[in-house]
Each structure stands twice: as structure tokens, then as C-alpha cells.
Amino acid sequence: MRLSNCNSSKDGVFIIAELSANHGGDINIALKTIKAAYEAGADAIKLQTYTADTLTLDCDKDDFMVKGGTLWDGKKLYDLYKEAYTPWEWHSELFRYARSLGLDIFSTPFDRSAVDFLEQFNPSCYKVASFEITDYDLVEYIASKKRPMIISTGVATLHEIEDVVKICKNVPLTLLKCTSAYPAKFEDANLLTIPDMKKRFGVEVGFSDHTLGITAPVVAVALGAKVIEKHFILDKSIGGADADFSLDKIEFKEMVKVVREAEKLLGKPNYEPKNGRVFTRSLYVSKEIKKGEKFTKENVRSVRPGYGLHPKHLKDMLGKTASRDYEFGERFSL
Q1: Which domain holds residue 181?
Q2: Cβ contacts of residue 236 below 8 Å, gap of 6+?
Q3: Strands 282-285, 227-231: parallel, antiparallel or unpaired by DSSP?
Q4: How would DSSP label each residue in 137-148?
């Protein structure tokens, strides 16, 4: 699936490696991560385009402290985003390098200024993060650029999803089932939402995964996900805000392999047997029959192989008279 064409039936599941904060503040690590994602089989690398000031306020009040059982509890929002952001001056080189490898690259803008900044790179699409889905003004502004959009729905209510689908009615849209916990528990994934979203909203549906391991993306694909997004890190020893629930190159490559295998297994609705019909049963002469004799269960049997007449004709044959001689082992045919 190329997001610019949204032809998932032709090109298969679109697999996104999320760079996010997994660069440790070093552009060389970011570049190496892009190459590793390409070598691991990703279709795209995704950035996040924000600054601490475009996301929050530099405020020490309790409201601005991270809490709720996350990996980042106790940190000030401003400090977390200042540590995790991807410098805007890197974007030009990151876009150029990814494209030189033939890897798609796009980003999640977190405010209007980020959208305006990203437009210079002619991105294939835009991603809206779960926590920005309620910012209808931002969603509408992104949609005004007439590029394909991917929207994570992790913290959205059903009514809010309905709203953004309407806002994005004039652009190709993919909704991502997402559980906004870091990491997310298997029992909170509720992947049966994927086919329900497809039926309910009539758009492409994918899965943004924050669980550990690669089981959830494979199950998501089996349920109809056409996009898989997973956090990717060059080496977990780099650390950082997202390291604990990210896949390294070896893990991501295995995920891609198994997802592609799952796609092959799914195939398409098909009731035509591929092979093996020769080993089905058919009607054969089991005892020599002379002209004028009747066909009986003693001289006509349903046996393997399947070159002869279909066994469904046996009842119609029994009791009828042979119009010629039949030798033992001869197949019956119409």
C-alpha cells in the first residue's frame, strides 16, 4: 500500500517505522536508524514535528506534570518534549536520505506551524497523533492540504472519530486502532475494533501498536489492518522516552517477515481447490461387467483416484443396464 495511492489491495500492508524520540538527540543516530528501518523491511519512516513550546507550556503547576502510571511519571511535560523532539533543522537531511534509499518518509505535525514547515518537503501524507485528534482546527488545517491522512484513535471517543472522519471527507483517510498506553497490555488492545471501524466508517483501517513484541501487529493484519505502525530504535541501549516499547532492527525485521507471511496466508476468498483433486474418490469398475448386466454395488465402487465419474452419480447408476462390456479398473465417465 502506497499512501499516495491508497491501493492496499495491490501493494499489501503498509509498514511504518516510527522514529519518534529514538534518536537520542544525535542526527547520526537518526540517519542510521532510517537505514536500519529500510534494511528491516519498513515501507516508511515517520518523524514527529514539534517543539516543547508548540505542544505545551513551560509551567511547573501540577497540571503540567506527567502522571497516571506512565513511563514518564514525575516529569514535567515541557521537559519531556524538549528531550524527545526531533530538531526541525534535521528534517531536510532526514527526508533527503530516506528518499535516496527509496523509503517513504512523512511526519506528525503538532500545530499549524509544523504543517507549514513540512509542506516544503512534499510529504506523501500526514499523520495525526492520538492526543491531537481532539484538535479539530489542526485536523481541518492538515486536511486542507489535500494529502492522504492517517489518524490514530487511541484516546478518541466514538463521537470524536465520527467528527474527524467528516472533517477529512475530501482526502484519503486511514484510521489507526490504537491503545494509548506505553507499553499497552494485550488485554487492552481490543483488536476486534479493526473490522468494526472498517464497517462503521468506510475507510481504510490500520493499527498503531504500543504492545511489546510482534504478536499484536500480526493479529491486526489477520483482522484486516492495512497499515502497521511500530516504534523503531537502532539500539535499545540508546535509551530515551520510547525505547522500552520500541523494536530494534532484528525484531522489526521479524515482524515484517511474519506480517508478510500473514498476508500470504490471508489471500482472498477462494473456493477453487489448488491441487489434490486426483486423490478424491470417483466411480470405477470394481468387477468385470458384461453388456446387459446391471450396475450394482459389487461391480461399481467409489474409490480413489479421482479421474472417473463423480460419486454423486452412483445412486442414479445402480440398477441400470450396461450398454457394453466394462473391464475391471475402468473409470466411468459421462
Answers
A1: 8-50+85-266
A2: 243, 244, 246, 248
A3: unpaired
A4: HHHHHHHTT---
H helices of the chain, in order, are 8-11, 27-39, 52-55, 77-84, 91-100, 112-119, 136-143, 158-167, 193-201, 215-222, 249-266, 314-317
Q: Are residues 110 and 257 in the same domain?
A: yes
C-alpha to C-alpha distance for 244 and 69, rounded to whole angstroms? 15
- Residue 70 included in any domain: no
Integer angstrom CA distances of residue 326 from 23, 131, 146, 291: 80, 78, 74, 8
Rounded to whole angstroms, the Cα distance separating 230 from 211 reads 9
Q: What angle do CA 167, 168, 171 make, to 5 degrees?
A: 150
pLDDT (tens, 9 = 90+) of the chain, 334 residues, equals 555 444 444 579 999 999 989 999 999 999 999 999 999 999 999 999 999 999 999 999 999 999 877 777 888 999 999 989 999 999 999 999 999 999 999 999 999 999 999 999 999 999 999 999 999 999 999 999 999 999 999 999 999 999 999 999 999 999 999 998 888 999 999 999 999 999 999 999 999 999 999 999 999 999 999 999 999 999 988 887 778 889 999 999 999 999 999 999 999 899 988 788 899 999 999 999 999 999 999 999 999 999 999 999 999 999 999 999 999 999 999 8
Last residue of a domain, which of 266, 295, 319?
266
The DSSP-derived string for 216-244 is HHHHHHHTT--EEEEEB-S-GGG--TTGG
Cβ(121)–Cβ(99) below 8 Å: no
Distance CA 29, CA 164 (A): 35
